[in-house]
Design a protein that fits this description.
This protein is α/β, with parallel strands linked by helices and 463 residues long. It has two domains: 2-215 and 405-462, Metallo-beta-lactamase, Chain A, CATH 3.60.15.10; 220-403, Rossmann fold, CATH 3.40.50.10890. Helices cover 32% and strands 21% of the residues. The longest helix has 29 residues, at 88-116. It is globular and about 70 Å long. The N and C termini lie close together (6 Å). The model has no long low-confidence stretch (mean pLDDT 95). It binds zinc ion. The site of zinc ion (ZN) has 5 residues, from loops.
Amino acid sequence: MKLKFCGAAQNVTGSRHLLLYDNKKILLDCGLVQGGFGRLENHQMNNNFLFDPKTIDAVVLSHAHIDHAGNLPTLIRQGFKGKIYCTEPTVELLAVMLEDAAKIQAQDAEYLRKRFQEEISPLYDKADVAKTLKRLVGYKYGEPFEVEPGCQAVFYDAGHVLGSAQVFLTVNEGNVTRRIAYTGDLGRKNMPILNDPYQIPSADVLITESTYAEHLHDSFEYVFEEMEWVVRDVVARGGKIIVPGFSLERTQELIYVLHKLYLDKKIPAVPIFVDSPMSTKISEVFMRHVDYYDDQSFKDFLGRAKSPFAFKNLKYITSVNDSKKLNEYKGSCIIISASGMCTAGRIVHHLKHNIEDPRNLILIVGYMAKGTLGRRIVEQKRKVKIMGSFYNLKADVLAMNEFSAHADKLELMDNIKKIKKLKQIFIVHGEELATAYMRDNIINTLKFKGEVYAPKLGESFDL
Ligand SMILES: [Zn+2]
């Protein structure tokens, strides 16, 4: 029995981990490589798998984020014939996420053709996405199923985004049995909407993420108070709040917080616009999966609202015309729009129209990668370039890092400590330094006596 690391090895994107036993090949996640390397390199890494897609028997998917699921249509295009197992909400979220990803693939290929004058076709298109969606098979948390003969699986809540799972596999090869736990992306305790991550009690092998292996996050409990003060403050001076929102989870968490503050009469009844067709569709998926919310969600909204994601002041905007009308909106309001890093989409227009008014506030709730407009705003540059022209950054800027959807270093260590009988740990989904730091921490702080690896791309290990 072997594990081969074919992506997100000493890197945070392109999760692809291959399990080999008997004559079977099971792929854990099939994510897109994004950022970091350069667009041509990314395209090549996404187009060339470190295995033959035709030989893969099945895929088991942790969650709907593009860096974990966004390369599935390429796998299918290159001859993968099997099923893709995931949770029920992930099935629905993927329909939205992959449709959007196909559009981005077309734009990316066009950019690369112009930039490098090479014959580059998109990784995949809408037709490939449609084929992918037909292969998805959804299960509930805690419901065991057979992936292939000799491999049983069960999903446990990862508390990261709606429907996110830790994957637990029991694999038999001859008279050898290995219980393999894969964290996917591990969430945090006490976040809105989601349950806390499930604690896997025991396993032989752990594949763990390490995104924030070196960082500590602020607790979410102060977000409500902070948001209350921010909204009151900006509304009192007649300003608008502009939020670059990430469509999956972050936007819904923001709506949740604002809705609760509104119900508790802590903030004035200003209009809240979610200006993004994708965020709107994703919020609809959230509304259909009430059974995946945590108990706190029911306590917060029980008897007071139909859904955390729908209320009087909240308007979802899908048409381009309605989006443009927001430019002329007089008076205070909150606009949540994509893309999260301000690299494209409607948020760019909202920033252009609002960035020079000191009454306004730009609220940052997610990570801004180097080289993005979002990063320049977080760094509070005096002038920022938007769509080819320079604008004075006079609006207030506030970053709230509490919205992170990943376990921090203490939470990652705590998870490992509580899994009994571990013999092997593989650290993935982290930058090189983070994986090395985590490995040291496991050996020196946890005094772990088994094997600990931070695999390099393409490395294989016997289990
Ligand atoms: Zn994720």
